[in-house]
């Protein structure tokens, strides 16, 4: 013991003697590594081309001087009126493209796709890096243009247009190639001498149809994934957010040119439903539709004659389950964001709040208090607001119809509940409704507006039943102080995505697939699955060893003899027999076949 202690003391003394030198050397090495890394990082950033995208006066202006727009009885066929939904000021007109023009755009994209499919991942990454650099350096501008066209507040624009887009680009740059690399697969038993793999081959031209709720993210999301997968893309934007596309298309075009991509790789289509229909029927190789369930089913039917594959990202009515043991101080602000972000105009918006009875009243009081103090107004030029305008004409009326229907059937409105009198823009206030029953339309219909519906539950089974009592199944959330309990509830929810103790956290993890079940659609967009869905998963098998190649066994060579089938049966038994004895029986039968008359191919000679 004494000897060990002495040895330890001696060792400590020796380490202490050299320690200062070692520390200095290690510190210097670390500093050198950090400096080198920072130098490399700065130089590689500087090497990414910076885009020059000229802006128009109205894209730069915080406040506009423009006439107020009064929607006409019938819309012009050849152009789309664009206006700021917060002030109703006319921004201008976008072209309503004809079906012929859409087909011409597809043809251009097809030509470009023939070149781009052979591009390297390094070139595709460069394209995304150029985009990311521009986006990060011009966030406020991109957001201002989105806010003006769609009514969202500048803060909401950063959250929904920029952050998720930046994360998507970062993920594709960091992990996209890994997801699309050929993947080795097992060759099986009878093909033991083969090497098998899946190659992810670009489909060609992706046709994407997107809604208006996040006009920047909704275009960069499919453009980045489609081009990274080696495709061209024709993207049909919504007639309710077409003004901003002029600027966003200039960004994309400049990035394509700087990355050396073929002209025509990304084509924008502005127009009404007929332009979308022309895109679906126009011979694209894959359709990604993001929009309502009603139009999504039409798109699916229209894609059927050409058997064009479709991914459908449709409506949602997310359940937000709050257990009695959840931390309400954490939950209430998240619940408010989940319901009211972008005026609730999100496919994955919290709509149905299912709250354990023990905390139901406290939860309602908390969210209603926040909803009541939220200021609403035009997004730009009038000081900060917490909620902006609703983008689509008719949305305010639709939301109000659902709220008043519920009220007339006994529901209670704790906050909001009526559009502000005399407001120039399309506003509906953050609204909290309780006492909702399944007889009310608001329990079933997608509101797509700033309305939080709260219902109580008494047992976890009831919470799950309430959450699943819905035609949609896109996102969902469960909050509980017990992770085990939250996971158990989450596992039973009929939804494509679930966040535990958070809302929509799955979307911040861009490696995850995005999509729903039931009437929320099928197929996945985003993540590894979404990226691969923009490719043909081509199966390839080849000889694994140069000295073994496939030959047709002699008994099977025509004209076949009587042992041809017994030989096949024996071979099957030998390879797939469930135990060694059965396999041995197969081998014995195989040998018998080979020595039988005609077994060595003599039948042919005969
Ligand atoms: N699941 C998701 O990822 C997701 C994301 C955002 C929005 N949404 C859903 O989108 C809906 C709101 O968006 P919207 O009102 O723009 O949806 P929408 O279905 O009315 O329109 C979507 C797009 O389809 C086009 N279109 C219309 N008729 C068409 C046709 N016959 N053929 C082809 N295209 C046609 C429109 O011009 C528009 O560009 C909500 O239901 C929302 O839940 C879903």
Automatic annotation (TrEMBL):
This is Aldehyde dehydrogenase. SUPFAM superfamilies: ALDH-like. The chain crosses the membrane at residues 21-40. InterPro entries: Ald_DH/histidinol_DH, Ald_DH_C, Ald_DH_CS_GLU, Ald_DH_N, Aldehyde_DH_dom. Belongs to the aldehyde dehydrogenase family. Keywords: Membrane, Oxidoreductase, Transmembrane, Transmembrane helix. PANTHER family: ALDEHYDE DEHYDROGENASE-RELATED. GO terms for molecular function: oxidoreductase activity, acting on the aldehyde or oxo group of donors, NAD or NADP as acceptor. Residues 78-540 form the Aldehyde dehydrogenase domain. The active site is at residue 313. Gene3D superfamilies: Aldehyde Dehydrogenase, Chain A, domain 1, Aldehyde Dehydrogenase, Chain A, domain 2. Pfam families: Aldedh.
């Amino acid at each position: 013991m004494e000897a060990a202690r002495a040895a330890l003391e001696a060792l400590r003394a020796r380490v202490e003697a050299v320690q200062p030198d070692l520390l200095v050397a290690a510190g210097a090495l670390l500093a050198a590594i950090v400096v080198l890394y920072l130098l490399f990082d700065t130089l590689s950033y500087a090497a990414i081309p910076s885009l020059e995208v000229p802006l128009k006066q109205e894209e730069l202006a915080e406040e506009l001087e423009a006439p107020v727009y009064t929607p006409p009885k019938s819309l012009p066929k050849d152009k789309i009126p664009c206006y700021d939904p917060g002030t109703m000021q006319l921004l201008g007109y976008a072209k309503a493209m004809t079906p012929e023009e859409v087909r011409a755009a597809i043809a251009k994209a097809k030509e470009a796709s023939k070149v781009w499919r052979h591009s390297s991942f390094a070139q595709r990454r460069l394209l995304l890096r150029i985009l990311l650099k521009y986006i990060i350096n011009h966030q406020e501008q991109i957001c201002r243009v989105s806010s003006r066209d769609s009514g969202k507040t500048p803060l909401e624009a950063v959250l929904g247009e920029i952050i998720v887009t930046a994360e998507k680009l970062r993920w594709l740059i960091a992990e996209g190639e890994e997801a699309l690399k050929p993947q080795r697969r097992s060759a099986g038993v009878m093909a033991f001498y083969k090497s098998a793999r899946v190659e992810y081959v670009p489909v060609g031209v992706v046709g994407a149809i997107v809604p208006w709720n996040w006009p920047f993210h909704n275009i960069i999301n499919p453009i980045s994934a489609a081009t990274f997968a080696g495709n061209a893309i024709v993207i049909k934007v919504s007639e309710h957010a077409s003004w901003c596309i002029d600027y966003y298309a200039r960004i994309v075009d400049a990035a394509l040119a700087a990355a050396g991509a073929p002209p025509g790789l990304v084509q924008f289509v502005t127009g009404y439903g007929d332009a979308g229909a022309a895109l679906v029927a126009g011979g694209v190789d894959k359709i990604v539709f993001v929009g309502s369930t009603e139009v999504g089913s039409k798109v699916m039917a229209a894609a059927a004659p050409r058997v064009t594959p479709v991914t459908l990202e449709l409506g949602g009515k997310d359940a937000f389950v709050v257990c009695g043991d959840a931390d309400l101080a954490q939950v209430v602000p998240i619940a408010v964001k989940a319901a009211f972000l972008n005026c609730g105009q999100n496919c994955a918006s919290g709509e149905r709040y299912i709250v354990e009875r023990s905390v139901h009243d406290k939860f309602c009081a908390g969210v209603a208090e926040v909803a009541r103090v939220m200021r609403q107004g035009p997004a730009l030029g009038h000081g900060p607001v917490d909620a902006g305008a609703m983008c689509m004409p008719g949305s305010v009326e639709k939301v109000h119809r659902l709220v008043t229907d519920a009220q007339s059937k006994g529901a209670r409105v704790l906050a909001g509940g009526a559009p502000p009198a005399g407001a120039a823009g399309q506003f509906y206030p953050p609204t909290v409704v309780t006492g909702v029953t399944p007889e009310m339309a608001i329990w079933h219909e997608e509101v797509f507006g700033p309305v939080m519906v709260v219902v109580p539950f008494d047992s976890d089974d009831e919470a799950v039943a309430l959450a699943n009592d819905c035609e949609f199944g896109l996102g969902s959330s469960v909050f509980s102080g017990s992770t085990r309990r939250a996971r158990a509830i989450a596992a039973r929810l009929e939804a494509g995505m679930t966040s535990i103790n958070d809302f929509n956290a799955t979307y911040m993890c861009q490696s995850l697939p995005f999509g729903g079940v039931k009437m929320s659609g099928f197929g996945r967009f985003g993540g590894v699955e979404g990226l691969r869905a923009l490719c043909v998963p081509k199966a390839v098998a080849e000889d694994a060893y140069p000295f073994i190649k496939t030959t047709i066994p002699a008994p099977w060579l025509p004209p076949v003899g009587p042992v041809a089938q017994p030989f096949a049966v024996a071979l099957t038994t030998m390879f797939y027999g469930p135990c060694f004895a059965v396999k041995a029986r197969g081998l014995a039968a195989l040998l018998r076949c080979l020595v039988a008359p005609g077994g060595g191919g003599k039948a042919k000679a005969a």
